[in-house]
């Protein structure tokens, strides 16, 4: 039985949270949480420098799980050693997915053709190991759809993280027939997010995941501050209001969805 408000933050960057909040470790962060504290965390490492911390925290903290993959921002740093290292990390049962990987044409920190190439390589890597995926997509809708449309990917659970697209893009993604989950962050509480709230309202309830993307995307009323996993209850309030359901319904639903996506 789930506790009434059990939740897992399915996407956070604990190293950046600790850094920005000037905390030494997770136990110090946990002191910031209210009674509605997360049951577990899925911590994301998305560049090579983040891997040592990733390995340490998965080893030392029972309630920290992980996903690792190279972010489109850092696609230019991808090489065969890194590919090999990530492949090895996937053998750890606490590493639940390959990601976040994808395309980001908003910042274009790596050239688009490199992003595309590295995205393809990592998709193939995940496919060969039958690993779930965490997808980052920003201002790259057509190319993202093109890559994810590969029918070989249909059986891998896929978390479209920090979804900020509109209902049209949501429907296009669904038309790929993939096994999709959508992570909603504090962005859904922002004043100008009507388009995303429309997705929260209309998407399949079995597709909704709770995530912070901490330290980014703190929900209202903390917008602009350093986000942490203990802010999820604010996101839950918002989803409950949008779907016209109780908060405990949202917690129960998302806890089950997390199990379906990540097996925890
Ligand atoms: Zn992230």
Q: How would you describe what is shown here?
A:
With 264 residues, the protein is α/β, with parallel strands linked by helices. The protein is 39% helix and 17% strand. It has an eight-stranded parallel sheet, with helices on both faces. Helix 9 crosses helix 10. The radius of gyration is 17 Å and the shape is globular. It starts with 7 loop residues before the first strand and ends with a helix. The model has no long low-confidence stretch (mean pLDDT 96). The structure holds zinc ion. Residues 11, 13, 44, 100, 161, 213 line the site of zinc ion.
- Strand arrangement across the biggest beta sheet: 1-2-3-4-5-6-7-8
Task: Tell me how many strands there are.
Answer: 8
Oligomer: single chain
What is the N-to-C succession of helices and strands?
EHHEHEHEHEHEHEHEHH
Give a short summary of the structure.
The protein is an alpha/beta fold.
List keywords for this structure.
single chain, 264 residues, alpha/beta, 8-stranded parallel sheet, 39% helix, globular, binds zinc ion
């Amino acid at each position: 039985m789930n506790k009434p408000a059990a939740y897992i933050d399915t996407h956070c960057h604990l190293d950046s949270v600790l850094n920005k909040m000037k905390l030494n470790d997770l136990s110090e962060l946990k002191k910031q949480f209210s009674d509605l504290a997360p049951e577990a965390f899925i911590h994301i490492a998305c560049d090579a420098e983040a891997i040592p911390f990733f390995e340490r925290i998965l080893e030392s903290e029972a309630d920290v799980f992980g996903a690792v993959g190279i972010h489109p921002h850092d696609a230019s740093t991808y090489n065969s050693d890194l590919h090999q290292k990530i492949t090895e990390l996937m053998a750890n049962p606490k590493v639940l997915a390959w990601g976040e990987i994808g395309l980001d044409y908003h910042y274009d920190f790596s050239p688009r053709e490199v992003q595309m190439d590295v995205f393809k390589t990592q998709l193939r890597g995940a496919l060969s190991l039958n690993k779930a995926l965490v997808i980052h997509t920003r201002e790259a809708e057509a190319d993202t759809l093109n890559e994810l449309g590969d029918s070989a990917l249909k059986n891998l659970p896929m978390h479209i993280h920090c979804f900020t697209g509109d209902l049209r893009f949501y429907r296009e993604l669904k038309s790929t027939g993939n096994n999709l989950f959508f992570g909603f962050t504090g962005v859904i509480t922002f004043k100008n997010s009507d388009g995303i709230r429309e997705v929260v309202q209309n998407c399949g309830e079995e597709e909704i995941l709770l995530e912070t993307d901490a330290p980014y995307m703190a929900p209202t009323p903390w917008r602009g501050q350093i986000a942490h996993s203990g802010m999820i209850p604010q996101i839950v309030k918002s989803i409950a209001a949008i779907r016209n359901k109780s908060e405990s319904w949202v917690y129960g639903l998302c806890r089950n969805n997390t199990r379906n996506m990540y097996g925890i």
